[in-house]
Design a protein that fits this description.
The complex is a heterodimer. Chain A is of the alpha/beta class. Chain A has nine helices and ten strands. The N terminus of chain B is likely disordered. By secondary structure, chain B is mostly helical. Classes of the chains: A alpha/beta, B mainly alpha. Chains A and B meet through helix 2 and helix 3 of A and helix 8 and helix 9 of B. The structure holds adenosine-5'-triphosphate (ATP) and magnesium ion. The site of magnesium ion has 5 residues of chain A, from helix 1.
């Protein structure tokens, strides 16, 4: 739980090697390799069902992988002896469906983990939370319950909740998918801001324009395989694989790039 | 009427977040005034019709009952004013025992039910025996007729003449009620726990909360809130069933009525006791309805699932 980089030499914050994940008979991730350098943004793109969410869930140990290994700051977290709670404390996750706790106010949602998991005093946790809310334009909403907020506001609260534990790595799973275009802008501004702060992020997204603009690295997933990865210019501008080209062509036709 | 006040409050101001400034010089149009006049007239008419229809129904019912054959005898056996006056204070005195039983058993049932429900949701191999025991407990006591449970505990246990074990019918009856109702309530809590979407637990876990913390701070509060209506239902049920402790001879409202009825061979005291129970449950039932309706409304307002 620190804002400071733990790996000044630029060694990856997150590394996946030959990760394989199956659900019953279906192979959802196959031989996935991924490296996320500190202070960079990695965008996972690909069709629905290509395994983006599953990849993020594996990185957060919400799913057990079948084979391969995952490292967080050089420590192998897929070792069965690691404490998954300790790993999750260092990773912030924002889900597509917000998953705010409906019985708690915005402030309680945000301070739950800092207080109960990290042992931060209530006053301090609330002050930090209010500061973050202010920054994300939610200053007046601390006492509101989630069902009184708009979708974009809920999503930003979810982001604040993930940030409140000062995570080493943020995982965003299609955080704009449920929002109308105006709110999408709101939330993407936040991500841009976080990038400016030097936060390390991995985001699954269907917003190709945004991925192109903000990402340092783009990974194209297809059928559970990382078919292509590189800088946005490379993946969007000069894709090597025919499959990637077809995917991007369809996106362009749909007017989303 | 209150038109002046309505003027200053644009419709739907509460959910628009007050975007429209009050006092923007809005004057209700004649169309709106005409509409409101029409609505008021319609309400008055509906009230009048309801009153007339109720009166007619009441009179018809009365005539049917009174002219029925055997009404005279029924009235003497079940609705005798003399016996009612005699039984009422005794029944009320007995009812105090029922109320105390309800309070104590109700509290015990909530605690025990919660423990059993949580035991059933525990994961991990260490808890396997606990899970099995909790499941067996609920299966057994939900299936066992309450009256048999009561007979075994209230009548059977004293027959054992165990040292240090009470023979007090109230304590034993309360124990039997608690045993059975804990099983019901445990199932209600378990259903509540399972109704909380797994994504809530996932969100809690991904914030670093342990399984236990996720249960305590995220799952259980939502589960309990959702299950308030069925829990109140079970409490209403328990309230009535406290009358069953009378089989062991404890002088509750039912037994008090029983004593007088047995002496006089008139059944009015039972009616009195019955009505007293009904009177006691009505507020509870109304309260349950109110809570349920309120929660349904909250959920309908786009509350999270
Ligand atoms: N718990 C599960 N059990 C079985 N199959 C699953 C499970 N979770 C995901 N899958 C399958 O894994 C595949 C990848 O799913 P995933 O959610 O990772 O896709 P995605 O790339 O995130 O798609 P989308 O863009 O629609 O969110 C899908 O075929 C899905 O059916
Ligand atoms: Mg997904």
């Amino acid at each position: 739980m620190s804002d400071a980089p733990a790996s000044p030499d630029g060694s990856p914050v997150l590394r996946m090697e030959a990760v394989r994940k199956t659900f019953g008979d279906s192979v959802v991730l196959r031989d996935v390799d991924l490296e996320v350098a500190p202070h960079t943004v990695t965008a996972l793109i690909g069709a629905s069902g290509s395994g983006k969410s599953t990849l993020l869930r594996c990185a957060n140990l919400l799913e057990d992988i079948d084979d391969g290994a995952i490292w967080l700051d050089g420590e192998e977290i897929t070792d069965p002896r690691t404490d998954p709670d300790a790993v999750r404390r260092r990773i912030g996750v924002v889900f597509q469906a917000y998953n705010l706790f409906p019985h708690m106010t915005v402030l309680e949602n945000i301070t739950l983990a800092p207080r109960r998991v990290h042992g931060v005093a209530r006053a301090e946790a609330e002050e930090h939370a209010r500061g973050l809310l202010e920054r994300l334009g939610l200053g007046g909403k601390a006492g509101a319950y989630p069902d009184r907020l708009s979708g974009g506001q809920q999503q930003r609260v979810a982001i604040v909740r993930a940030l409140a534990v000062r995570p080493r790595l943020l995982l965003f799973d299609e955080i704009t998918a449920a929002l109308d275009p105006e709110l999408v802008g709101e939330v993407l501004d936040v991500v841009r801001d976080l990038k400016g702060d030097g936060m390390t992020m991995v985001l699954a997204t269907h917003e190709m324009g945004f991925a192109r603009e903000v990402a340092d690295q783009v990974c194209f997933l297809d059928g559970g395989v990382v078919l292509e990865h590189g800088t946005p210019e490379q993946v969007f501008g000069d894709p090597r694989q025919e499959r990637t080209r077809r995917f991007l062509r369809r996106i362009v036709e749909a007017g989303r790039l | 009427m209150t038109l002046v006040k309505e003027q200053s409050e644009p419709e739907g101001a509460d959910d628009k977040g007050g975007t429209e400034p009050a006092g923007d010089g809005y004057v209700p149009s004649p169309r709106r005034l005409e509409r409101e006049r029409h609505r008021r007239a319609r309400t008055r008419r509906a009230t009048a019709i309801a009153a007339a229809s109720t009166l007619v129904t009441g009179v018809v019912l009365y005539l049917v009952v009174v002219s029925a054959p055997g009404w005279q005898r029924t009235k003497e056996t079940f609705f005798d004013g003399q016996y009612a006056r005699e039984a009422f204070p005794k029944v009320l005195e007995g009812l105090w025992l029922n109320v105390r039983l309800l309070l104590v058993c109700g509290a015990a049932v909530l605690v025990l039910g919660m423990l059993i429900a949580v035991a059933r949701t525990l994961r991990g191999p260490v808890f396997f025996p606990l899970r099995v025991l909790a499941a067996a407990y609920t299966d057994f006591f939900r299936g066992l007729p309450l009256i048999i449970n009561l007979m075994i505990v209230v009548l059977g246990v004293p027959a054992l003449r165990l040292q240090g074990v009470t023979v007090d019918p109230v304590l034993l009856g309360g124990t039997a009620l608690t045993l059975t109702y804990s099983a019901y309530v445990a199932e209600v809590f378990r259903a509540g726990i399972e109704s909380v979407h797994p994504s809530q637990r996932a969100a809690a876990r991904s914030l670093g909360l342990s399984n236990r913390q996720a249960l305590r701070y995220v799952v259980l509060p939502q589960a309990v809130r959702r299950q308030v209506p069925p829990l109140l239902n079970d409490l209403v049920s328990l309230q009535k069933d406290t009358g069953l402790v009378s089989i062991g001879g404890a002088i509750d409202a039912v037994r008090a009525a029983d004593i007088i009825a047995g002496r006089s061979l008139n059944y009015t005291p039972y009616i009195v006791a019955g009505l007293v129970f009904v009177a006691l449950t009505i507020p509870m039932t109304r309260f349950t309805d109110w809570v349920t309706a309120r929660m349904d409304r909250q959920r309908a307002q786009g509350g999270t699932t």
